[in-house]
Specification:
Helix content: 10-25%
Mean pLDDT: 84
Low-confidence stretches: none
Number of domains: 1
CATH class: Mainly Beta
Number of strands: 11
CATH architecture: Beta Barrel
Radius of gyration: 16 Å
Largest sheet: 6 strands, mixed
Length: 164
């Protein structure tokens, strides 16, 4: 797992895409964001893993879509005019993440990026790659896409082990 120090060690500033999910602002390193598109209906895949909502056709390429609200144990994102699909890529895998809305693109100095609290990581919480501290605002969690994909993989195993 990449840590907060490795996020900021390459440059003095990091660019983060910030999104609203269930009333909370979360961030994803823009190095992993291909694009942000308006929400469109998702075509369900029969017997797909529980966390994969289906696929969208994005300019001739099929992109699997995961509801980020549900993945983070929040409520499922309800489609509206502000709903977006964040198309991400990590380790050669492309996946769309449904979010309530796009909030902002944030330039953050490396001094503002910290590791998640030790208690959280020791308890097995790996969804947060880092936490951004901001003066006069609440911290923003930077998600680990690797962890999110691992959660989707685990949902595949759970689906296959359940009797049909």
């Amino acid at each position: 797992m990449a840590d907060a120090v490795s996020i900021a060690s390459e440059e003095d500033e990091v660019t983060l895409g910030c999104f609203d999910v269930g009333g909370r602002t979360i961030a994803i390193d823009v190095a992993n964001v291909r694009e942000v598109v308006r929400w469109q209906p998702v075509t369900p895949l029969p017997k797909s893993p529980a966390l994969i909502d289906g696929v969208i056709d994005l300019r001739g390429a099929l992109v699997p879509v995961v509801d980020l609200g549900r993945l983070l144990n929040e409520s499922k994102v309800k489609p509206s005019t502000g709903t977006r699909i964040v198309v991400t890529e990590t380790d050669g895998l492309v996946v769309g993440l449904t979010v309530d809305s796009a909030v902002e693109v944030l330039q953050v100095g490396s001094v503002s990026i910290e590791e998640p609290p030790a208690l959280a990581t020791q308890a097995g919480y790996d969804a947060a790659r880092a936490v951004v501290r901001r003066p006069d605002s609440e911290p923003i969690v930077v998600l680990s896409l690797e962890y999110l994909l691992e959660s989707v993989y685990r949902s595949v195993l759970t689906t296959r082990e359940d009797p049909a």
